[in-house]
Design a protein that fits this description.
Elements (H helix, E strand, L loop, with lengths): L4 H11 L5 E6 L5 H13 L3 E6 L3 H14 L5 E5 L8 H14 L2 E4 L17 H17 L15
Parallel strand pairs: 1-2, 1-3, 3-4
Length: 157
């Protein structure tokens, strides 16, 4: 389950209100819909989302290094979007080392990244998600909503 960008960005603003710019790197086009939602959420929350597409692992690593070398410590953040897995181990080590050495703000949509040292993430409220899924199923069965649409979880802790 991927956290809704708006919920994650709202928490970021509460924890670090000086942040005005969020960098995000994504590797493939299948995450374009998530970046679109993140851009809408950022605009609504008066944040600037800077999107950095990367074609392959090499470009991904180079882009992370560039951002980590140029990121403003108090007003910019680096977001690791939900991908179903954590960053490649060596790349995660580089991100963590740079963020801790330079006091950079890095947050993740992958809850497991927090125990590795990432500033924050959120985890799903399973009970609230179950209620929401039951309501969506009921609406689908009664024909109130149709089709398969991706829904990001907003029920988070």
């Amino acid at each position: 389950m991927a956290p809704a960008p708006k919920t994650l960005f709202t928490l970021l603003k509460k924890v670090t209100p000086a942040v005005k710019k969020i960098h995000v790197i994504y590797q493939d086009k299948k995450h374009g819909w998530l970046v679109e939602q993140a851009n809408e959420a950022a605009t609504e929350l008066e944040l600037q989302l800077v999107v950095h597409p990367a074609a392959d692992l090499h470009e991904l690593a180079e882009t992370y290094r560039h951002i980590l070398n140029t990121q403003a410590p108090k007003t910019e953040a680096l977001w690791l979007p939900h991908s179903g897995a954590s960053l490649e181990k060596t790349l995660m080590k580089t991100v963590l080392q740079s963020s801790w050495n330079k006091n950079l703000i890095v947050f993740s949509s992958n809850f497991g990244d927090v125990k590795k040292g990432i500033l924050l993430s959120m985890f799903p409220d399973n009970e609230a998600n179950g209620v929401r899924l039951a309501m969506l199923l009921e609406k689908h069965l009664t024909g109130t909503i149709r089709g398969n649409t991706v829904r990001l979880t907003e029920e988070l802790h």
